[in-house]
Design a protein that fits this description.
The structure holds two protein chains of two kinds.
Chain A (H helix, E strand, L loop, with lengths): L6 E12 L8 E13 L4 E5 L6 H8 L7 E6 L2 E2 L5 H7 E4 L13 H12 L4 H14 L4 H4 L8 H13 L5 E5 L7 H18 L2 E5 L3 H7 L2 E6 L2 E7 H6 L4 H9 L48 E3 L4 E3 L1 H4 L1
Parallel strand pairs in A: 3-8, 3-9, 6-7, 7-8
Antiparallel strand pairs in A: 1-2, 1-4, 4-5, 9-10, 10-12, 11-12
Helix pairs in contact in A: 3-4, 3-6, 4-6, 6-7
Chain B lengths: L4 E10 L2 E11 L4 E5 L6 H9 L6 E4 L2 E4 L2 E2 L5 H7 L4 E4 L13 H13 L3 H14 L5 H5 L8 H13 L5 E5 L7 H18 L2 E6 L2 H7 L2 E6 L2 E7 H6 L4 H9 L48 E5 L2 E4 L6 H6 L1
Parallel strand pairs in B: 3-9, 3-10, 7-8, 8-9
Antiparallel strand pairs in B: 1-2, 1-4, 1-5, 5-6, 10-11, 11-13, 12-13
Helix pairs in contact in B: 3-4, 4-6, 6-7
Classes of the chains: A alpha/beta, B alpha/beta.
Chain lengths: 319, 325
């Protein structure tokens, strides 16, 4: 495998102007704030964080669906902005959360899966047909299911269609944004197993976004924890789950309710202050909720401190 | 003494379609009973049927359905609406859509008490402010004057809980109360429910698909599949020695940090939930079950695997021990 990272993100930032009322002055919401990382080819980077932390905005910028306010995205060593849509589609493809709204209800499954091929504009009809058949088979759908409409399929089958559509151009990278959140646990397991198998067989790289930490631990080789637009900790999956360094990572891990009776519901000590991306606190952005915050946290911005395979952004780790 | 809520063989049909085909469960005072199952298994319809809130066309039948010793099967709408929101309350899944967007939090909260208890406006406002504080909302006075869209998801769900508690209910039916929330907020809300239960001796029927939630807060669990309760047991027993193959399958589907190795496939249940035709006999799980045999096409016995542990399955109780051995 080459040394060029599959995804590289440099100083990525995205600001939204939000108008609160008809005559109110627009406020700036910094959804993603100076994020840099790289994902080696063939690995899985999991991104976790609460709703509103900017993980979906980040994914959309990496997919080229949303222009960054500043910073660069490099896919396979090429600047995303230099690639045209067709070239981009051959490199990176998405699988979204909701298989009920991400598939066109008026088209048959095989036409949905064929769309990326047809959009390339230079692939012959029988080649399209052959590759659609291949992709459907790959994700465990029959040719008969290919002629159905999405409404005739279950949630799990629809997510298989979305995966087939993502794979039909044989991309190197797949961005999965909460791919199993809308599914039942038994179906979630089927889809996670399928994604793992596909990665192994096709040598794919995944950017895997989820709020479910147990799922991320299961699939990701490395994990980045986002809080209010920044990655506050990044590490190898095993190290991050075994000894989380950032207090926010610790709180997130403590909140996971594993199916182990008798342990009760943990007190994660985050208090009642909710993070507001339109109003990012000075100093460490996590300090109002942090159970370990001390005086310096409210005015001093923590620097990145390296760990095994990544970094942590916390004053406690600097010491 | 009889249970706070006693449901025996509840059936719900919509036209020719059976949504619930046999649900029996009890909730004692101060107990949390979790009803767990996947989408479409009939758990939410069960909750609505218990509250007498089935959509038009829904038909409810049961061998017994009593609340605090009173048979509520034949209560008229007037009597039922007197109970609802007063002695039995409900929280639903979406805090986003279940509050009236055109009305302040305060007026929605006070309405409950004024309607059921004839409280004065001032009394109701006091009670609402007190409860908002109780559910962990800071500055209750300010929140009372706000509209739902001004609150975050976690706050809205707290408002829903406060609303359910306005009249000191004896029974709280909570349908996926934390599914739409972040894990951090979920932990806070569940702790809150447990605290309130200890304080007020509430009986809680909690409906969820999340086995993690079940494990951490339930005293007792009933597993629903295709409209039937297929297994029911005290929580520790259900997780330690599940009897029904469906329960066992569900438990292997969940990635448990530290138990399932990364990269190894998760357990999964092949196939999908079947559509149950009218007049269906036998086990509804048999087409997906690795242990299915001829007897599964006939009436299924309700077997005891322990004094308080029932499973709707033809396999002999304790078969799992032998399978493991």
């Amino acid at each position: 495998m080459s040394d060029i990272p599959a995804i590289e993100v440099r100083g990525l930032r995205r600001v939204f102007d939000v108008r609160q009322g008809l005559f109110a002055k627009p406020r700036q919401v910094v959804a993603v704030d100076d994020v840099s990382f790289s994902v080696p080819a063939g690995s899985v980077l999991g991104i976790v964080g609460e709703s509103g932390c900017g993980k979906t905005t980040l994914a959309r910028m990496i997919l080229g669906l949303l222009p960054p306010s500043s910073g660069d995205v490099l896919i396979d060593g090429q600047r995303l902005g230099d690639l045209d849509r067709r070239a981009r589609a051959r490199l990176i493809q998405p699988v979204f959360q909701d298989p009920f709204s991400s598939l066109n209800p008026r088209r048959r499954v095989r036409d949905i899966v064929a769309m990326p091929l047809v959009a390339q504009g230079n692939i012959a009809g029988d080649e399209v047909k052959r590759r659609v058949g291949e992709a459907l088979e790959r994700v465990g759908l029959s040719a008969e299911q290919g002629s159905r409409y999405p409404s005739q399929l279950s949630g799990g089958q629809r997510q298989r269609v979305a995966i087939a559509r993502a794979l039909v151009l044989r991309p190197r990278i797949v961005v999965c944004d909460e791919p199993t959140s809308a599914l039942d646990v038994s179906v979630q397991a089927q889809i996670l197993n399928l994604l793992a198998e596909l990665r192994k067989d096709l040598g794919l790289t995944y950017l895997f976004i989820s709020h479910n930490l147990a799922v991320v631990e299961h699939v990701a080789s490395e994990v980045a924890v986002m809080y209010l637009g920044r990655i506050v900790e990044r590490n190898e999956s095993e190290a991050l789950f075994a000894h989380p360094q950032h207090p926010y990572t610790r709180a997130l891990l403590d909140s996971v309710l594993t199916p182990e009776p008798g342990l009760g519901v943990p007190d994660v000590g985050l208090g009642d202050t909710m993070p507001d991306p339109a109003n990012i606190p000075p100093g460490c952005r996590f300090h109002p909720r942090c159970p370990l915050a001390f005086e310096r946290c409210s005015h001093e911005t923590p620097k990145l401190t390296p760990n095994e395979a990544g970094f942590v952004e916390c004053l406690l780790a600097e010491e | 003494m009889s249970a706070l809520l006693d449901v025996r063989n509840l059936r719900v049909t919509f036209g020719g379609t059976a949504a619930v085909r046999g649900a029996s469960l009890t909730v004692e005072k101060g107990e949390t009973h979790c009803l767990v199952g996947e989408s479409g298994c009939g758990k939410s319809v069960t909750a609505l049927a218990l509250m007498g809130l089935l959509a038009r066309g829904g038909k409810r039948e049961a061998d017994a359905l009593s609340f605090a010793g009173q048979d509520i099967r034949n209560l008229g709408e007037r009597d039922m609406s007197r109970l609802r929101g007063d002695r039995m309350a409900m929280i639903v899944q979406e805090p986003m859509t279940s509050l009236n967007p055109a009305d302040t939090v305060g007026s929605q909260l006070t309405e409950v008490l004024r309607r059921h208890r004839g409280a004065s406006r001032a009394q109701a406002v006091d009670r609402a402010a007190e409860l908002l504080g109780r559910v962990g909302i800071t500055a209750p006075g300010l929140r009372l004057g706000q509209y739902p869209h001004q609150l975050s998801g976690g706050l809205r769900q707290r408002v829903m809980i406060a609303m359910a508690l306005m009249c000191d209910p004896e029974l709280l039916i909570a349908d996926e109360p934390t599914t739409a929330l972040d894990v951090t907020v979920q932990a806070q809300i569940l702790r809150l429910l447990a605290e309130l239960q200890a304080e007020f001796g509430l009986g809680i029927l909690l409906i969820t698909h999340d086995l993690g939630v079940v494990a951490r807060i339930a005293d007792r669990v009933s597993v629903m599949y295709a409209g039937e309760v297929v297994e029911s047991a005290p929580t520790a027993e259900l997780f330690a020695a599940p009897q029904h193959p469906y329960t066992r399958g569900l438990l292997t589907c969940v990635p448990v940090p530290g138990k399932v190795k990364r990269g190894e496939p998760l357990g999964s249940i092949p196939g999908v939930v079947p559509r149950i035709p009218p007049g269906f006999v036998g086990c509804s799980f048999r087409d997906r079950c690795a242990y299915a045999h001829a007897a599964c096409k006939h009436d299924i016995p309700r077997q005891h695997a322990g004094p308080d542990h029932e499973a709707l399955c033809t396999l002999p109780p304790g078969w799992t021990d032998r399978a493991a051995a």
